[in-house]
Amino acid sequence: MDQIESTEAQSDEPGSSGPAMKIAVVLREDLEPWQRLNVASFTVSGVASQAGAVGESYRDGSHNTYLPMFKDPVLVFGATTDEMARTIERSRSRGVLFSIFTEDLFNTFNDLDNRAAVAAVAADKLRAVGIAFRCDQKIADKVLKGLKLLK
Q: What does pTM read for this prediction?
């Protein structure tokens, strides 16, 4: 499997010389395919809520308009339970905000219940199956060190 590689994407805002950003999704390796898709979808929705994460709407040659997408590269990594815990700790210690999907969320069916399920468990007892974040590429590389791209 591929080790994490640095990407050199710069902010594409006109006139911006901001830091290169990266979006990372980290999924526990033992998830079923449908669970991987579900967790990735929900966790990246948190990233999309961050200011500056999403670009402009798309438009085709017939003038149909499509929803905007992320401006930055999105990389998906696999992690064991221990690697997930380490990645969460690295994120917290560097002040990186992330969305989280826990095992309990497979048994809830709306946002209110999802948030209640997370709120009911202390941080060190959350059984995380996926996280996603967007941050400076150099910080992301440190948080993700040792993880491999999910195949």
A: 0.89
